[in-house]
C-alpha cells in the first residue's frame, strides 16, 4: 500500500504485537465501508435503522461502563514530568509503553487489524496533518470514516515523510480497570486500550487533533483549540468569522449551527458552520489568524437536540449517521432521545438495549432516561444545511473574535469583552464551568477549565498560557478580539434566564459590532460589558431589568472569584507567566 519506511516499520511492529488473523487497509471506498457496515450488522455490533426515514443510519451501543471520556485514565507521557505539567496525569514513556504493550499483546487473535490512513483537515491543506490509526473495531473504522478524511490518497500526500501520528487502539475486553488513553507527544504516538467509546478511541479527534496537536502547535508556532468556528454573514453579504471555546457539552455544536431569530433572518443575517469542536489556527501571510476545522463530521451530543434548539444538527443526522447510546423506537425502527420531542416512545429500548418504561420517566432521575446523557450522533459535516463553503478549503478562515464561555449559574455576565489580548488570555486561563456528562465523574461541579482545554492540553498548561501570550505578540494589532459569554445564568428556581440557542445571535451581533468599532460598552472591573440597549431584544419575552441583571458584575461574587483564580494559579507555581499574575493583581485592584 505504501513504500513509506516509517509507516511499514511501525505497522510491522504493531502487527507482531497484537497478532491479528487478518489485516485490512481502509481504502476510503464506499464498497469497502458498506461491506463493513453489513458485517457489523451481522454480528450485532450495529443495528440498521429504518432506511426510508433514516437512510444509511445505524445505532450502536457501548458497554455501560464505557460511555464517556475517562480523564483519570488519560495520560501524557513525556520524558520529563514537568513537560506534562500539573493538570495532566503523567507516566514515564517507557513504563507506559511496556504496560500497554503487555495489555495489547495478542489481543487481535481471531480478529482483524484495520489500518486507517486519515487526514485531519482537507487532504493536502497546508494546515492539515496525517495520522494512521490501527484498530480492531469496525465501529471505530466507520466513525473515523465520517469524522476524518480516510483512504489511500492520504498515503500519496504523506509520501516518504515521517511527519504522521501513530495511533494504536485495542478494544481488548473493555475492562475499565485496564483502560488507558496514553499520549506520547515526543513520539507522535497514541495508544488506547480497553475502551470503545468515541472520545477515547476515535484517535484523530481529541487524542491527535487536541492533545498531540496542541504540543505540535507549541513547538511549531500555531494553535490547536477546543473551539467551534462559525461565519456570521450580515445583510451586506460580508462574513466575519468567530472561534469559540466552551467546555464539553456546553454549547459549541449549538452555537456553530445557530439559526438567527426571525427578525434578523428577515434582514438577511445568516450563520455558516465551519467547525463544531476543534480549530487549528495559524498566522496567515497577511498576519491574521486563520482557522481550519480538522474534522470532517460532527460527534455531537444527542440529548436536547431538536428541531427548535438545533435544526441544522438534527438535519445533519438524517442520513449516513451513526447513533451511539440513544434509544431505539421499536414502532418504526428509528431513534429517540430526551429533548427530541414530547412524544415519549411507548415501545422502545433504552440505550442499554432493555425495554424502556416511559411511564417511569422522571426528569430528575437520569437512570430513568431512554438515552444516555452523553449519547451522541456521528454525522457527516456535508449533511449540515449551513455548512460553510470554506469548510472544505484548506486555507482556513480569518478569525475576528475569539469567545470563551462555560456554564456558570452565577458570576459571569451574559457577555463581556477583554481589555486586551493579554487580558483575554487571563480570562481564558481562569475559565470555569460546571462539569457535564461528556466525561466520566460528577456532573454539575464547578471546576477551572482553562480555554476549555483542561482535558485536552498535551503539555504543561503554564507553557500553554505563555504560548497564547506569544501568539498575541506575533499577531500584534491583527489579533482577534477576545470575549467571554455565559448562556447559563440561572434564576432562584434554577431556570436559565437567557433563552440561548438561536437567540445567542443577539450577542454575536454585539461581538461583531465591537470588532468593527460600532458598539459602545461600559468599562467594568472585569472588562467591557454591553450597554443594555445594545443587546437587541426584539420579539423576545425579556424585559430590560432582566437583561441588566444578567449583564451585571457583582463585586462581591467577583472578589470570591478572584480568590479562587489565585488558588487555581497556585498549581502552576513559578511557571505561571508573570503577565497573568499581573492581570490577576489588576483585577483584584479593580474590584476594590
Ligand atoms: P462537546 O461535543 O462535548 O464538545 O459539546 P458541545 O460544546 O458541542 O455542546 P453542545 O452544543 O452539544 O451542547 C450540549 C448541551 O448544551 C445540549 O444539551 C444543549 O441543549 C445545551 N445548550 C447548548 N446551547 C445552549 C444555550 O444557548 N442555552 C442553554 N440553556 N443550553 C444550551
Ligand atoms: C467532548 O467531550 O468534548 C467531545 C466528545 O467533543 S469526545 O469526542 O468524546 O471527546
Ligand atoms: Mn468537544
Please give a structural write-up:
The mean pLDDT is 97. This protein has 592 residues and is of the alpha+beta class. Strand 30 and strand 31 form a beta hairpin. The chain has three domains: 5-51 and 70-221, Phosphoenolpyruvate Carboxykinase, domain 1; 225-296 and 389-591, Phosphoenolpyruvate Carboxykinase, domain 3 (Alpha-Beta Complex), CATH 3.90.228; 298-379, Phosphoenolpyruvate Carboxykinase, domain 2 (Beta Complex), CATH 2.170.8. The longest helix is centred in the middle third of the chain and has 17 residues, at 204-220. Helices cover 29% and strands 22% of the residues. The strands form six sheets. Strands 1, 4, 5, 6, 7, 8, 9, 10 and 11 form a nine-stranded mixed beta sheet that branches. Strands 12, 13, 14, 15, 16, 17, 25, 26 and 29 form a nine-stranded mixed beta sheet that branches. The chain is globular, with a radius of gyration of 23 Å. The site of sulfopyruvate has 9 residues, from helix 7 and helix 8.
Radius of gyration: 23 Å
CATH class of the largest domain: Alpha Beta
How many helical stretches? 17
What are the distinct ligands in this entry?
A: guanosine-5'-triphosphate, sulfopyruvate, manganese (II) ion
Share of residues in helices:
25-40%
Overall domain count: 3
Oligomer: single chain
Overall geometry: globular
Mind summarizing the main beta sheet?
9 strands, mixed
Spatial gap, N to C terminus: 67 Å
The averaged pLDDT comes out at: 97
Percentage of residues in DSSP E strands? 15-25%
Number of strands: 31
Class inferred from helices and paired strands: alpha+beta
- Runs in which pLDDT lies below 50 for 5 or more consecutive residues are none
Amino acid at each position: 500500500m505504501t513504500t513509506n519506511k516509517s509507516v511499514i516499520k511501525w505497522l510491522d511492529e504493531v502487527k507482531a504485537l497484537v497478532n491479528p488473523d487478518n489485516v485490512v487497509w481502509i481504502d476510503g471506498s464506499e464498497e469497502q465501508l458498506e461491506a463493513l457496515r453489513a458485517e457489523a450488522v451481522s454480528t450485532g455490533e450495529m443495528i440498521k435503522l429504518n432506511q426510508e426515514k433514516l437512510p444509511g443510519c445505524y445505532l450502536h451501543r457501548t458497554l455501560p461502563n464505557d460511555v464517556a471520556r475517562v480523564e483519570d485514565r488519560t495520560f501524557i507521557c513525556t520524558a520529563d514530568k514537568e513537560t506534562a505539567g500539573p493538570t495532566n496525569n503523567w507516566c514515564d514513556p517507557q513504563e507506559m509503553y511496556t504496560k500497554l504493550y503487555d495489555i495489547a499483546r495478542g489481543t487481535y487473535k481471531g480478529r482483524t487489524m484495520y489500518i486507517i490512513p486519515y487526514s485531519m483537515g482537507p487532504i493536502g491543506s497546508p494546515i492539515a496533518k496525517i495520522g494512521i490509526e490501527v484498530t480492531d473495531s469496525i465501529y471505530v473504522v466507520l466513525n473515523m470514516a465520517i469524522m476524518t478524511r480516510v483512504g489511500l490518497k492520504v498515503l500519496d500526500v504523506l509520501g516518504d515523510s515521517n511527519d504522521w501520528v501513530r495511533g494504536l487502539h485495542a478494544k481488548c475486553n473493555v475492562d475499565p480497570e485496564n483502560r488507558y488513553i496514553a499520549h506520547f507527544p515526543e513520539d507522535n504516538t497514541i495508544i488506547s486500550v480497553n475502551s470503545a467509546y468515541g472520545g477515547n478511541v476515535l484517535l484523530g479527534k481529541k487524542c491527535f487533533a487536541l492533545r498531540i496537536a496542541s504540543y505540535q502547535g507549541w513547538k511549531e508556532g500555531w494553535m490547536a483549540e477546543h473551539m467551534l468556528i462559525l461565519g456570521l454573514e450580515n445583510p451586506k453579504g460580508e462574513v466575519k468569522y468567530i472561534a469559540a471555546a466552551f467546555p464539553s457539552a456546553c454549547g459549541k455544536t449549538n452555537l456553530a449551527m445557530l439559526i438567527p431569530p426571525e427578525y434578523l433572518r428577515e434582514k438577511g443575517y445568516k450563520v455558516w458552520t465551519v467547525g463544531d469542536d476543534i480549530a487549528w489556527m495559524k498566522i496567515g501571510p497577511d498576519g491574521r489568524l486563520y482557522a481550519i476545522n480538522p474534522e470532517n463530521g460532527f460527534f455531537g451530543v444527542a440529548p436536547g437536540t431538536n428541531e427548535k434548539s438545533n435544526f441544522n444538527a438534527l438535519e445533519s443526522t438524517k442520513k449516513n449517521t451513526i447513533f451511539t447510546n440513544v434509544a431505539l423506537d421499536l414502532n418504526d425502527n428509528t431513534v429517540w432521545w430526551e429533548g427530541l420531542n414530547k412524544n415519549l416512545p411507548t415501545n422502545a429500548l433504552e440505550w442499554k438495549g432493555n425495554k424502556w418504561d416511559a411511564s417511569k420517566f422522571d426528569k430528575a432521575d437520569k437512570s430513568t432516561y431512554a438515552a444516555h446523557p452523553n449519547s451522541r450522533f456521528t454525522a457527516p459535516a456535508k449533511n449540515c444545511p449551513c455548512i460553510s463553503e470554506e469548510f472544505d478549503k484548506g486555507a482556513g478562515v480569518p478569525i475576528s473574535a475569539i469567545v470563551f464561555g462555560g456554564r456558570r449559574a452565577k458570576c459571569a455576565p451574559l457577555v463581556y469583552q477583554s481589555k486586551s489580548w493579554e487580558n483575554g488570555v487571563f480570562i481564558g486561563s481562569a475559565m470555569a464551568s460546571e462539569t457535564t456528562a461528556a466525561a466520566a465523574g460528577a456532573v454539575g461541579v464547578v471546576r477551572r477549565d482553562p480555554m476549555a482545554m483542561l482535558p485536552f492540553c498535551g503539555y504543561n498548561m503554564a507553557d500553554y498560557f505563555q504560548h497564547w501570550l506569544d501568539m498575541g505578540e506575533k499577531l500584534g494589532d491583527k489579533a482577534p478580539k477576545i470575549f467571554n459569554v455565559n448562556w447559563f445564568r440561572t434564576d432562584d428556581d434554577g431556570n436559565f434566564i437567557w433563552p440561548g440557542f438561536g437567540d445567542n445571535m443577539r450577542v454575536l451581533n454585539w461581538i461583531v459590532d465591537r470588532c468593527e468599532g460600532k458598539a459602545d460598552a461600559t468599562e467594568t472591573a472585569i472588562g467591557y460589558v454591553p450597554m443594555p440597549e445594545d443587546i437587541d431584544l426584539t420579539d423576545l419575552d425579556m424585559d430590560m431589568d432582566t437583561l441588566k441583571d444578567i449583564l451585571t458584575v457583582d463585586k462581591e461574587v467577583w472578589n470570591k472569584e478572584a480568590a479562587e483564580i489565585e488558588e487555581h494559579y497556585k498549581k502552576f507555581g513559578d511557571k505561571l507567566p508573570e503577565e497573568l499574575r499581573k492581570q490577576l493583581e489588576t483585577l483584584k485592584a479593580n474590584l476594590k
